[in-house]
Predict the structure.
Amino acid sequence: MTLVDRGEPGDETSFGHAGIISRGSVLPPNGPAIWRSIGQYASNRHPAVRYHMGFIARASLPMFLIMCVAVFLLVSFPDIATFLPSAMK
């Protein structure tokens, strides 16, 4: 990889770029210490885990709708619960 800055070195492209992407910089390291940070991960306050609630809402909407239809079918047609396992064999 070659980085070219138009200005002084370290001002643009190469600023903070070491040239190596380590596994620890992409995913939080796994281990017993992860439990101390789980609250920060869940509340989106830790730099190791960042997410956008808008994307999660858009991505989970289809699954939510499928689950709603499944519950509706199971409640409306209770016999379907006994038919489905035998039909899937």
Q: What stands out?
A: The chain has a mean pLDDT of 75. The longest helix spans residues 53-76. Helices lie at 23-26, 34-42, 53-76, 80-87.
